[in-house]
Design goal:
The protein is an alpha+beta fold. It contains two helices and three strands; from the N terminus they run E-E-H-H-E. It is about 25% helix and about 20% strand.
Length: about 70
């Protein structure tokens, strides 16, 4: 299982849920599982990921933090 923690900006898609555990082996399968559980969340996340990163493996027991883009000067 992969532990996923949502930043406050993404909790609008999760109904306020801050953390879940998801069965996934790649970034793509993680996003798909999250989108099935929280419709609309996958699109909010997927728009900020490089395509080649989607096939990266997510090791068992990983912790993933979903945060909005951050900019600065």
């Amino acid at each position: 299982m992969v532990r996923v923690i949502f930043g406050s900006a993404l909790r609008q898609y999760t109904g306020g849920v801050e953390e879940v555990e998801i069965e996934a082996t790649t970034v793509r399968s993680l996003i798909n599982a999250l989108d099935r559980r929280f419709p609309g969340l996958g699109g909010a996340i997927d728009g900020h990921i490089k395509t080649d990163a989607l096939y990266e493996r997510v090791p068992e027991g990983s912790e993933v933090h979903c945060l909005p883009p951050i900019g600065g000067g």
